[in-house]
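User: Design a sequence. Structure:
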């Protein structure tokens, strides 16, 4: 599994370091079979590698056709509004944003820790690069704001871990995509923090073997609860600090008030949903032992010291 994961990281880094559309497409083409091979090597659901490969290949083929036809007419840039929207939608499908998220939801039901962490983090990098290279129209901004609102509402109604992770992904990726062109450095930091929080949460969910967060579990631990609080945006943890920096930067760059209010309201809804999950976890089993697993103290430490590290940055 180490070789496919290494190739995924290499293709992602090479892709984001180039401004060539064809080179980016080539890295995506190499990346797709590598992740499919990674899924097949972990002996998970045999349908997952094929489903992933088909969806990614179809979107990549569409992307290639658009690039070839566009470069013939517009050699320097993708300036046509329709083509910009098409490229954004390709990236949204690849990342599993609403309303094209069902394929990812079905895959996540049977994925193991490493594959799931990779899908939620590393596999978002190249699609995000696509969105950073084209202008974000008002239509795309509206779609992203709807993703923020719907994911926040959904998180308040779910206790399934795969729903939790997917809605969290949609929420945070929407934040990143909204600002990745105008606030590239802040968006990159935001995505990095999201990735670390997601890996921490998935690791803790794996340690407790929980598929539903409102079911009693003797192995539930304080580390899992803190990971959920961190990704929820509860002050002063990772999620809060990253969103605070993003909102501050957007305000200074004269972002429309309606957009800022939508971001703030969706974050409050998301926080309420996560706190409800934490309450359910603690109250469904009043004798739950909140212990720190001996094999993962670094996860707890990283969640606790992160706010101080961000302030220093």
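Assistant: Done.
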């Amino acid at each position: 599994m180490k070789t496919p994961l290494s190739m995924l990281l290499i293709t992602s880094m090479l892709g984001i370091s180039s401004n060539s559309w064809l080179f980016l497409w080539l890295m995506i083409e190499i990346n797709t079979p590598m992740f499919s091979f990674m899924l097949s090597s972990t002996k998970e659901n045999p349908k997952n590698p094929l489903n992933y490969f088909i969806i990614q290949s179809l979107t990549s083929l569409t992307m290639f056709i658009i690039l070839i036809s566009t470069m013939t007419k517009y050699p320097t840039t993708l300036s046509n509004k329709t083509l910009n929207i098409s490229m954004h939608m390709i990236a949204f499908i690849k990342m599993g944003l609403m309303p094209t998220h069902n394929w990812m939801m079905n895959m996540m039901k049977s994925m193991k820790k490493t594959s799931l962490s990779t899908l939620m983090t590393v596999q978002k990098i190249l699609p995000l690069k696509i969105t950073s290279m084209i202008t974000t129209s008002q239509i795309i901004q509206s779609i992203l704001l709807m993703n923020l609102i719907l994911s926040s509402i959904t998180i308040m109604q779910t206790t399934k871990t795969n729903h939790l992770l997917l809605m969290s992904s949609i929420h945070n990726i929407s934040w990143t995509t909204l600002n990745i062109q105008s606030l590239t450095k802040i968006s990159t930091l935001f995505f990095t923090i999201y990735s670390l929080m997601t890996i921490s949460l998935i690791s803790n969910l794996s340690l407790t073997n929980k598929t539903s967060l409102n079911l009693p579990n003797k192995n539930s631990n304080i580390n899992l609860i803190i990971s959920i609080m961190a990704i929820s945006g509860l002050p002063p943890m990772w999620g809060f600090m990253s969103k605070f920096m993003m909102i501050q930067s957007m305000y200074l760059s004269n972002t429309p008030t309606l957009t800022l209010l939508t971001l703030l309201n969706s974050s409050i809804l998301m926080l309420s949903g996560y706190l409800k999950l934490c309450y359910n976890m603690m109250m469904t089993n009043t004798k739950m032992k909140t212990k720190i697993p001996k094999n993962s103290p670094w996860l707890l430490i990283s969640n606790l010291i992160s706010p101080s590290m961000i302030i220093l940055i």
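The chain is about 75% helix and 0% strand. The chain has two domains: 1-135, 136-313.
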